[in-house]
Amino acid sequence: MAGDQYRYVTVDSEVGVGTLTLSRPETQNALTADMVEEAIAALRWLIAREEVRAILITGAGHSFCAGADLDELKRLEEGDEALQRRLVDGARALGNEIRAAPQPVLAALNGVAAGWGASLALACDLRIAGNNTKIGQVLTKLGLSSDWGSTFYLTRLVGPAKAMELFISGDLIDAAEALRIGLVNQVVESHHLADVARSWARHIAAAAPLAVHALKHLVYLSDYVSLDEMIDLELAAQRECLRSADAREGLDAFFTRRLPRFVGR
Question: Pairing state of beta strands 17-22 and 9-14?
Answer without folding.
Answer: antiparallel
